[in-house]
Amino acid sequence: MDLQVLENQTRALVIDILERSAIKKGQLFVLGLSSSEVAGGLIGKASSLEIGEVIVKTILEETQVRGVHLAVQGCEHLNRALAVEEAVAEAKNLEIVNVLPSLHAGGSGQLAAFKYMAEPVEVEEIVAHAGLDIGDTSIGMHVKRVQVPLVPIQRELGGAHVTALASRPKLIGGARGQYKEDPIRKF
């Protein structure tokens, strides 16, 4: 796999989702990543530290430029705990848990987060405003309601299927309700 091509495709993908999701400075963006799927294998069976590092470093650069906080979801072996900056965990009153990710418990994305974040910690759960799922890792449990699916500009990254979610406030009030313009779908 050409890592420069992977970086370029990842950058285009995350910029697209960050812009269309209407995520704001200070909000959380969740990444679910299967480097196995990106490499063309089955989730959890062909983890690649190199692939994880390229993808996480690129996404971290793009989120930091916008003042958006990245949370990297771990695999099921860590109950889908998330790597975030300690300052973010403290500011958002997130429950910090004591575990260190490995390639096969947490995954390459979490190892990369621990490499590239200033002071990473693991938290049990978050409520993100948007997210990117590379390799069908099921990020929905970490994105707030109401979730809005976004079709990414590219539906695959390497061999991995790619999906994305944004969120919007609930519409209440029924037939008499009036609403602000939806910044995601612009209805």
Q: Largest sheet at a glance?
A: 9 strands, mixed
Overall number of domains: 1
Distance between the termini: 40 Å
Q: For this structure, what is the CATH class?
A: Alpha Beta
- The CATH superfamily is identified as Hypothetical protein TT1679
The value of Rg in angstroms is 16 Å
Order of helices and strands: HEHHEEHEHEEEEE
CATH architecture: 3-Layer(aba) Sandwich
Task: Estimate percent helicity.
Answer: 25-40%
Number of strands: 9
Q: Which runs of at least 5 residues are low in confidence (pLDDT < 50)?
A: none
Number of DSSP helices? 5
**Beta fraction of the residues?**
15-25%
Structural category is alpha+beta
Protein name: UPF0340 protein JOC28_001559
InterPro entries: Antibiotic_NAT-like, DUF436
Family: Belongs to the UPF0340 family.
Pfam family, one: DUF436
How would you describe this protein?
With 187 residues, the chain is of the alpha+beta class. The termini are far apart. α1 runs parallel beside α3 and α3 crosses α5. The protein is 30% helix and 21% strand. β2 and β3 form a beta hairpin. The model has no long low-confidence stretch (mean pLDDT 94). Strands 1, 2, 3, 4, 5, 6, 7, 8 and 9 form a nine-stranded mixed sheet that branches. 43% of the residues are buried.
